[in-house]
Design a protein that fits this description.
By secondary structure, the protein is mainly α. It is built from 17 helices and six strands. 63% of the residues lie in helices and 6% in strands. The protein has a four-stranded antiparallel beta sheet with strand order 1-2-6-5. Strands 3-4 form a two-stranded antiparallel ribbon.
């Protein structure tokens, strides 16, 4: 019952009352240390009161709990060294990491905890000592891997076409080799080494990604932008395309260019994931993800309807014309593709002025240009501009969350020998088996003096404002009298508050 009450207090809107009641209940707890403590009992979701405060973004309760867990090591003048208990914060030995819970929650207030002590210092320590070097090495290794795969695709086994053309529009001159013909020369053996590296890399990607999907859940794993959800979809699809290409190569099935092309596009697009390791580029990946999976996905439904309607109209108009003179709409799939290019203004309106154009083509193209180029494209630009404005206001906060998510991911993937535990064991200071983070705090006395001066100025302004408000309530005459009173009041207020503020400064000096 006591543990349930503690969880309820974390969710209370009245933070001061919740902190007092929390301390009162713990004062009656007999097992204040060890596994029987009320603070260490999780709820049905596996969250202790401390983790629940982080997930809910309750910064007041989080700071209150951290103040209870800190130990003052020594103090000398303005310098103070504090040991913070990071037992539940550190993700090194936690199945359900506190840092991962914060970056995966949908509440924006929870990300503010990443800027509080000691979470900020712990993340900075992990990222600077291990996270950034390993992440940069992983980015370099992935780029080299993609270069190897690209070279294998560029020099894939092809042979000249021997069959006759079936159509005047057939432009194929090379075809895919059979499996027996693909690995004969020395160059083919070099390509085989690159292909084996590519396939092994795809298998490793699936082996690393699938356990996280089963542990977190597909909806949460792919749906969180900060955790890199869309990039996980991209890299898993890329690995699947590599395996499909391998099967088609081994069975000598024609058409391997389709999965190979998809794999090239997806693999190189995944390079943007590594931009999160840099503060200048990290927020832009968030913007791209939100624009693609937010604005662009909604816009594509409208675009598909417009393209489908006008492509059908263009195909019907040119259905009776000679395709050799106007080949952009010679069949229905080509009409869809040409209309898509016209929608994005990639090409100009296809027209051969050496022949007579149908009259309806001019009418339909006029309506299409107004709707597509002038209306819908500008609508898309406005939607993306609004998304950019919203993300730009919280880009620093989002980048910190990206760093935390990347650090936790690397800490889980790498062996323990390459990533030792951060902090200091409490046995060195006689504090048990808990782990602590040493933080040095410097108290600036001049800063506190200036804060007192500022509060003095604010207090005088508030007093004068209240007196002026009473005078305004008494003197309710004409509008002209009100303006004169307000003008004289503002002058006297500024003069009085300034005079009293300077008197405070002189006395303290």
């Amino acid at each position: 019952i006591g543990n349930t009450v503690l969880h309820i207090l974390v969710l209370q809107p009245n933070k001061t009352f919740a902190c007092h009641m929390y301390s009162l209940i713990l004062s009656y707890d007999r097992n204040k240390e060890g596994p029987g403590s009320l603070e260490l009992i999780p709820n049905n979701e596996g969250l202790t009161p401390f983790k629940l405060a982080g997930v809910e973004g309750n910064t007041v309760m989080f700071q209150y709990l951290m103040q209870k867990r800190k130990q003052n090591l020594w103090s000398f003048g303005p310098l103070t060294t504090v040991l913070y208990d990071i037992t539940e914060i550190d993700s090194w030995a936690e199945d359900q990491s506190f840092l991962e819970l914060i970056v995966s929650t949908k509440k924006r207030e929870a990300r503010q905890i990443l800027d509080l002590t000691p979470v900020k210092e712990l993340v900075s320590l992990k990222w600077n000592m291990y996270g950034r070097p390993y992440f940069c090495f992983l980015a370099l290794f992935y780029i080299l891997y993609m270069v190897c795969f690209t070279m294998c695709c560029v020099y894939r086994p092809l042979k000249p076409r021997t069959g006759n053309k079936t159509s005047s529009r057939d432009n194929t001159v090379y075809v895919q080799k059979m499996l027996q013909e693909s690995y004969v020369a020395y160059e083919d053996e070099l390509r085989l080494v690159g292909e084996l590296i590519t396939v092994i890399g795809a298998v490793v990607i699936l082996v690393l990604e699938i356990p996280d999907i089963l542990r977190v859940g597909a909806a949460k794993y792919f749906g969180q932008t900060i955790l890199g959800g869309p990039f996980h979809i991209i890299v898993i699809t890329y690995a699947c395309m590599i395996l499909v290409t391998m099967v088609m190569r081994l069975t000598s099935t024609t058409g391997e260019v389709v999965p190979m092309s998809f794999a090239l596009v997806l693999g190189w697009c995944n390079v943007m994931y590594f931009a999160r390791g840099f503060q200048m580029l990290g927020p832009f990946t968030i913007m791209i993800q939100k624009m693609i999976f937010g604005d662009l996905m909604r816009f594509c439904w409208l675009m598909a309807v417009v393209i489908l309607g006008f492509a059908s109209a263009f195909y019907i108009i040119f259905q009776t014309e000679n395709p050799e003179n106007l080949g952009q709409f010679y069949n229905y799939p080509m009409s869809l593709f040409t209309t898509f290019e016209l929608f994005l203004t990639i090409i100009d309106g296809p027209a051969n002025y050496d022949v007579d154009l149908p009259f309806m083509y001019s009418v339909v193209y006029f309506a299409f240009a107004i709707i597509a180029a002038l209306l819908m494209l500008n609508l898309l630009i406005a939607m993306m501009g609004d998304t950019h404005w919203r993300v730009a206001h919280e880009q620093d906060e989002l980048w910190r969350a990206q760093v935390v998510a990347t650090t936790v991911m690397l800490e889980r993937k790498l062996p323990r020998c390459l990533w030792p535990r951060s902090g200091i064991c409490g046995r060195e200071y006689g504090l048990g088996d808990r782990w602590y983070l040493r933080v040095e705090d410097r108290v600036d006395p001049n800063k506190h003096k200036m804060m007192r001066y500022t509060e003095a100025f604010k207090a005088q302004d508030r007093d004068n404002y209240d007196k002026g408000s009473e005078k305004l309530e008494i003197s309710r005459g004409t509008l002209y009298k009100k303006e004169l009173c307000a003008l004289s009041l503002s002058r006297s207020t500024s003069r009085t508050s300034s005079h009293r503020g300077w008197e405070i400064l002189r006395r303290n000096t």
